[in-house]
Amino acid sequence: MRNLTSIHRVNKSLQEFITMGNEQSLLKQHGYTLVEEVGQTYFMRTARVKDDKTKKQYIAKEIRINNVPRNLQEDILAEVDILTNMRHPNILKCKETLKDRDTLYVVMEYCEGGELSQKITRQRETGEQFSEDQVLDWFVQICMALQYLHEHSILHKDLKPQNIFFTKAGVIRLDTSGIPRGLDSTLPTSELQLQHYTPLEILRGNPHNEKSDVWSLGCVLYELCMLEPAFSAFSENDLIARLQRDLLSMTYCGNHSFYDSLLKSLGQLLKNSSKK
């Protein structure tokens, strides 16, 4: 009975995603079939969909515009338009956007290789670090994607392993569509970023800038090396206290001179990027 109830809930959730009131959603109208719902936040739902013609799978993000403050709606639409037109081999590709009166759909590339966070978890379970070449390869790809954004005056603001994906061929794809930037002021910090990757200045209420992204980049690099978050805390106050003390959770999975020297440089990178 419990399994039947769970199946019913899943089917109901998918049905709600497919239909809006008595009308078919734009996804269905444009030839997409729902495969599974991936996640849901305050104003957005995410699902894996299949193109009925090509049978290729995509990720569809449904943004409920009516949930967004009216003064921010135009900003969000403008930003989605920018993201749609970005072209870089290490940035997740946007296939198309669909909009009706109440809802905006962003149809994104689906990465079969999964998230970087999943690779880190699996590697940690082996008790061994990633190789130096592997860390550098991934890190360079992430840097290239972030550099492209900054060159186009775009801040990521949510850089973390959960937003870094891999294609089937193993190429990095950075997801830039997680949180429309116009909603920065309407959501708590915990909705914008996993706390481990949030600079102290942002926790204090200051606006994001390029250094904020660099801080998050440094935290991702640390986690690639050590397989643990750079900063761990059970609450925002605890995290702020740890950041003020400038403490890194130096948990080693093994000994490697590459990591020793890199972490010294990384500590300076994090320190410098936290300065205004």
UniProtKB/TrEMBL annotation:
Q: Name a GO molecular-function annotation.
A: protein serine/threonine kinase activity
Q: Which InterPro entries match?
A: Kinase-like_dom_sf (IPR011009), NEK_Ser/Thr_kinase_NIMA (IPR051131), Prot_kinase_dom (IPR000719), Ser/Thr_kinase_AS (IPR008271)
Entry annotated with the keyword rRNA processing:
no
Q: Which UniProt keywords apply?
A: ATP-binding, Kinase, Nucleotide-binding, Serine/threonine-protein kinase, Transferase
* Taxonomy, superkingdom: Eukaryota
Under SMART domains, the record lists:
S_TKc
Stated EC number for the protein is: 2.7.11.1
| Gene3D superfamilies recorded | Phosphorylase Kinase, domain 1, Transferase(Phosphotransferase) domain 1
Nucleotide-binding as a keyword of this entry, yes or no, is yes
What PANTHER family does UniProt report for this protein, alphabetically? CAMK FAMILY PROTEIN KINASE, SERINE_THREONINE-PROTEIN KINASE NEK1
Q: Which protein are we looking at?
A: non-specific serine/threonine protein kinase
Q: What is the lineage of its organism?
A: Eukaryota, Metazoa, Chordata, Craniata, Vertebrata
